[in-house]
Amino acid sequence: MDRDVVVTGIGMVTPLGMTADETWEDVCAGTTATGPITRFDPDEAAIQSRIACEINGSLAEQTSNDRIDDRTMGRYTQFAVTAAAEAIADAGFDPDAPSWRPSRIATSIASTFGGLSEIEAATGQRPSPRFLITALANLAAGHVSMCFDARGPNRSPGTACAAGTHAIADAVADIRTGRADVAIAGGTEAPITPLGVAGFDAMRALSTRNDVPERASRPFDADRDGFVLAEGCAILVLEERSRAAERGVTPYAAITGSGLTADAHHPTRPAEGGRGLQRSLERALEDATLEPDAVDHVNAHGTSTPTGDAREAEALRSVFDTVPPVASVKGALGHTLSGAGALESAIVALAIADRTIPPTVNYETPDPACDLPIVTDACETSLDAVVTTSAGFGGTNGALVFEQS
């Protein structure tokens, strides 16, 4: 059995907005969410990078979501439950209605750090009985399944910065193979904690443009000096195309291909020439039965790291004879780790539906090592096929192909 998969619902919780519409509007406007860290005192953590993309305030207060429970849900889980509620409503589903068939609903939500802030808060003391259910990385997927009565396949990939893409690819496979009819899929992360920031800071992976945070994340720019850590979540509702048609729902886009590979090279450095990511892209296009020259736009991983961006540029040049317009939204949203691939998948679906390529914020000085056609201003154009890329520590890669539905 092989069934077409479409995106019918989108939910987002990001530093730019508590909904998909708010986030998309600001991304297209070229707004950046980067600012000074306020969730803890950087001086006490002895870190050099003092900037991040934070979500401020209480989610329960900002969203009026009565499903959020501070006692049993970690921060990263609260993001996921909030975004899932929006995505399910956006898709026109009511989990209390007879048309919601619980045993046919999959949940695939990535998180690598899970409840890192909850873990840090419990360190050195006897944990509460609720500690593990706020901290374990699979509890975002678990709580979403419980909140919305989704009893089909349930998983939580922890494959670092490619995990959100992997979660969506796995959910697509659930529907294609008949394991599920509908999937709640995405990624969530809440890593802005003393340990989370200090870990990347110690590796010198983060930007230290503390005096001008709004200019810190600059994918593919010659003056990039590291990424900006971010928190957030995106959830997509995926379903089999004919089911969406029966419901009278217009999809945002179709997901027609995925490719997953490993570099088998180094714990943190991408393979020379971006070979692992290159193979991931090639496999995704093969899965979609699409030639490279049919792709209209690449939503790049583009983290703003010196080596990562250069390797990704090499991969793109290897796959495409003429690289299509490239953009990275990490200049606006920062790097949400396991949430990144999901957020960028949501952005791609919205880009196809709205016929708009969002800008790459802070791209000003071309880098010969990143010789790509970078989009710097939002532009309206027809998008028949778009690819999005992800890569993570451990040499793990992922790519997805989205097409007009």
From TrEMBL:
One of its GO terms (molecular function) is 3-oxoacyl-[acyl-carrier-protein] synthase activity. Pfam families: ketoacyl-synt, Ketoacyl-synt_C. Residues 2-404 form the Ketosynthase family 3 (KS3) domain. Keywords: Isoprene biosynthesis, Plasmid, Transferase. The keyword Transferase applies. The keyword Transferase applies. Residues 260-279 are annotated as: Disordered. InterPro entries: Beta-ketoacyl_synthase (IPR000794), Ketoacyl_synth_AS (IPR018201), Ketoacyl_synth_C (IPR014031), Ketoacyl_synth_N (IPR014030), PKS_Beta-ketoAc_synthase_dom (IPR020841), Thiolase-like (IPR016039). Signal peptide: none annotated. Belongs to the thiolase-like superfamily. Beta-ketoacyl-ACP synthases family. This is Beta-ketoacyl synthase. It comes from Haloterrigena turkmenica (strain ATCC 51198 / DSM 5511 / JCM 9101 / NCIMB 13204 / VKM B-1734 / 4k).
